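REQUEST FORM: STRUCTURE PREDICTION
Request ID: SP-0412
Submitted by: Lab K.M.
Chain count: 1
Length (residues): 354
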Amino acid sequence: MCRFIFSLFFLIQLSVSAIAQQNSEVTVTKTKPRPDTNYIKSYKHYLTIGIFVATPINTLTLTPKDSTIKPTQYSTNLASAIGFTGSYKSISGSFAFRASPEADETSKYGTTKYKSFSLGTQRTRFSIRFDYRKVAGFYNGDSIIASGSNPDTYFKRSDVNIKQFMLSGLYNFSWKKYSYQSSFLFSEHQLKTRVGFIMKSSISLNRLQSDSSLINLDRMATDSEKIQQLNFTSFLVGPGMGLNVVVAKRVYFSLMIFYSLDFVTYTLINNNNSTNVRDNSLTGFYEGRVALGYHSKRFYAGLKFTGDKIAVQTQGYTVENSFGVLTLDLGYRFVAPGILKKVYAKTLTKYLGL
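STATUS: Completed
RESULT:
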């Protein structure tokens, strides 16, 4: 009887041990990649709200491949734009609109409408971003028309507009000790001078449109055969290098340079609203960004210039859309409210891992 009880007790112990082993869970903690805190300080756990004043510059250049024909350059009357930024953890966004122009400037250069919006991630190693930009209303700086009391009135093309949808990505090979976000997104602070290597890529859908002719591919072409719309898709990739120089404890200077290769597929549409040409082109060019700024625990300020362009090589013209913006940023970092933390954790962190 004792032997039976002992055997039964032994079997129960084995069963309990087996069940406990099956039900036990091995928890593996997967840590997110973090930069070297001796070089980079992060402010992403704060809710950051900022305001900026920008001076956008947008030029559209049509250069004939026939050297006997003079290039045409259209410019915009964009004195300034006002915008707002916001970020928390891995998400950031901004939008901007054009400030009211002066009456004298409008009569001389015409009116340019400007809208922009962006939303993206601000990850340490890799970030993606969606941008929308629309610019409408240009003037030809080479054509001056005498008009009433103002003899220096330029030929205006209020019908010309450019619309862009862009999805871009940036990979930071030197993410442990170099931060591009310190200078251009203000979510991190570079503590020591450092050089970094980066790679950017983008795909964008673009439309250049007008109510009348923009491009004449053939001198003998009739008005209906002249080009009034250019639709193009850009596939861009470019290696680059960044430099953050810590001038003082909280003051920095930043420089980024890229060499980009841009593969473009395009369609030319004439005044009859029919396709005239469908082709592709490949162009290489340099792009740059520069910034000077200040960081404290809660406050930041920065002056930065960024530029980009897309060049389309058609059979008779080079169409180049260049965009640059000088921006003054001011912002403050707030302690994130509890409800924002909960919503973020249950949505973006749970489903996207951000």
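NOTES: The first strand starts at residue 40 and ends at 42.
Reviewed by: T.R.
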